[in-house]
Design goal:
Shape: globular
Order of helices and strands: EEEEEEHHEHEHEHHEHEHEHHEHHHEEE
CATH architecture: Alpha-Beta Barrel
Low-confidence stretches: none
Structural class: alpha/beta
CATH topology: TIM Barrel
Largest sheet: 8 strands, mixed
CATH superfamily: Metal-dependent hydrolases
CATH class: Alpha Beta
Length: about 375
């Protein structure tokens, strides 16, 4: 049996930070010891943290479709995405694939299945640094939602499905000015084109949201897929999520919705870029505010992989009452447990040896080494 010892590290445990060593055997944490009496690889006082767990990243699409009408080789796209994820300290990632179009006809359900096939083939052939699973971002207002969902029937790598409705005037875009700014710039629309686009999206939501939400919910319940709500803004949204068996509240847009979600037993997830930037790009509730009020459980890198580790160290520094272990749990232990991956996410005996060596320079974490199941991957 192979054994590795990492010593002289500041080890971030679930409840405290100690200086000591971690022994690894056959991909698992054998023991954790305080002090510096063992032989092993000297980490020179750097932090040793659990490998990060990412539940919602839209980052892969940019590698696959870097320009309108351009498609990159899907395996090459997955490898490029995986390399950036792993070098950011993420050892487990749920790649978010859109199910149903959100006003963008450039990507199809077949594209999403092709990306999923590239991920799964790369898992089987051991090409990847991080451990990859799937998150289905279900745009329930879209007429293509269930067509896209059917492409993933029986796919065992699907761990999470989120119920989304990005139609104008609600949830993320209750303020029409924010919706106008985002979509007119994204799609390069004239005022008249934007007006017709909004009318179409509102009508599609009226026709499709309720039946698609019900169908996705029932399918996920039968298959044991964890459900997430998305952009809940009101108590009514939260009550609907509770009735559907939702376990993760993604990106609530108001403090009212976040507090109600937490009280209902859901894990509240917010964006790490929101933490780093100091606010939402859509003008909604600040993640830091939710952290200060104890209504934040999980962080997600969303569109910038490195923001996950950056936000954890940042919260541990600037938010009173949030220690580094507690902040680190938001990017490791809490997301892992939210989707039932209880074998990782913390530096504890018997857990997977998913570990990250980090030095902090000028308040920015520098990832020096990443191990997945005891094997160095970055």
């Amino acid at each position: 049996m192979s054994e590795t010892v990492l010593k002289n590290a500041r080890i971030v445990l679930p409840d405290e930070v100690i200086t000591g060593s971690v022994a690894i055997r056959d991909g698992r944490i054998l023991d954790v010891s305080a002090g510096d009496t063992r032989r092993g690889e000297d980490l020179e006082g750097d932090f040793l943290i659990p490998g990060l767990v990412e539940l919602h990243t839209d980052h892969l699409e940019g590698h696959y479709a870097p320009r309108p009408k351009v498609r990159w080789n899907p395996i090459a796209a997955v490898l490029a995405h995986d390399a950036q994820v792993a070098s950011s300290g993420i050892t487990t990632v749920l790649d978010a694939l859109r199910i149903g179009l959100d006003g963008d006809a450039d990507l199809t359900p077949a594209d999403m299945r092709q990306l999923a096939d590239a991920i799964e083939d790369s898992v089987k052939t051991d090409r990847l640094r991080a451990d990859h699973f799937l998150h289905l971002r279900c745009e329930v207002s879209s007429p293509e939602c269930m067509e896209g969902f059917a492409y993933f029937d029986g796919d065992e790598r699907v761990k999470l499905a989120s119920l989304m409705d990005h139609s104008p005037g609600q949830r993320q875009f209750t303020k029409m000015e924010s919706y106008r700014l985002y979509y007119m710039r994204k799609m390069k629309l004239t005022e008249e084109q934007f007006r017709l686009f909004c009318e179409k999206r509102i009508e599609e939501s009226r026709e499709n949201s309720a039946p698609n939400r019900k169908a996705v919910t029932e399918a996920c319940r039968e298959r044991g897929i964890v459900l997430a709500s998305h952009d809940d803004a009101t108590l009514e949204h939260v009550e609907e999520a509770v009735s559907q068996g939702v376990r993760v509240a993604e990106f609530p847009t108001t403090s009212v919705a976040a507090k109600a979600s937490k009280e209902a037993g859901m894990a509240v997830l917010m964006g790490a870029p929101n933490v780093v930037r100091g606010g939402s790009h859509s003008g909604n509730i600040s993640a830091r505010t939710l952290a200060e009020s104890d209504n934040l459980d999980i962080l997600s890198s969303d569109y910038i992989p490195f923001s996950l580790i950056q936000s954890a160290f940042f919260l541990g520094e600037v938010v009173e009452g949030i220690s580094l272990p507690r902040a680190m749990a938001m990017v490791s232990k809490n997301p892992a447990e939210a989707i039932g991956l209880n074998d990782r996410g913390a530096i504890l005996e018997g857990r997977r040896a998913d570990l990250v060596r980090v030095r902090v320079d000028e308040h920015v974490p520098v990832v020096r080494t990443v191990w997945r199941e005891g094997r160095r991957v970055a």
